[in-house]
Structures are given as C-alpha cells and as structure tokens.
Write a structure and sequence with these properties.
The chain is α+β, with helices and mostly antiparallel strands. The protein has a single domain, classed as Ribosomal Protein S8, Chain: A, domain 1 (2-Layer Sandwich), CATH 3.30.1370.110. 31% of the residues lie in helices and 24% in strands. The protein is built from 2 helices and 4 strands; from the N terminus they run βαβαββ. It has a 4-stranded mixed β-sheet with strand order 1-2-4-3, with helices on one face. Helix 1 (19-32) packs across helix 2 (48-59). This is Smr domain-containing protein. InterPro entries: Smr_dom, Smr_dom_sf. Residues 9-84 form the Smr domain. Pfam families: Smr.
C-alpha cells in the first residue's frame, strides 16, 4: 500500500502486527523529506496499539521526543513525534 508522506500516519487501516515496522519506515521517510513533526493516529481502544507505537518510538534513533496529541489533534488516540534534524 502506498502511503502519502505528509506527516500524519493513520494506523487504522493496518494490522497491529504491522505497526512497529510501519512506524519506523514512515519516520525514516518523513525525515528524508525534511518533515520533523509527525502525528501518528492509533486510536483509543484498549491502548495496546498505542503501547506498540510508543515502544517503536523509544527504539527509533531519529526520535527526539513524543507524547499524546492535544484534544484538537486526537487526544490520547494520537501521538505527536518530534524527529531530530
């Protein structure tokens, strides 16, 4: 599946088992295009997908910081990521 590299990754269309690798690849693609602010939409649900995303972000060398989005950006159903230049 071809994804637009626009700084927002919506994981609703993907299986949870694909999430960690997809997040890493998407962050690399954003960084290559100079996008250093990324929003990952994982939904609220049980929190399992959010924890998978957070674990992938902790391991990714380009991630400077991450945290939940504000209420206008999805609240705890989305994570905002800042990449190192």
């Amino acid at each position: 599946m071809e994804l637009p590299i626009d700084g927002t990754l919506d994981l609703h269309a993907f299986r949870p088992a694909e999430a960690a690798a997809l997040v890493a690849d998407y962050l690399d693609a954003c960084h290559a295009r100079g996008l250093l602010a990324v929003r990952i939409v994982h939904g609220k649900g049980t929190g399992a997908l959010r924890r998978t995303v957070e674990a992938a972000l902790r391991r990714h060398p380009r991630v400077a910081a991450f945290g939940p989005a504000g209420e206008d950006g999805g609240g705890w159903g989305a994570t905002l990521v800042t990449l190192r230049p």
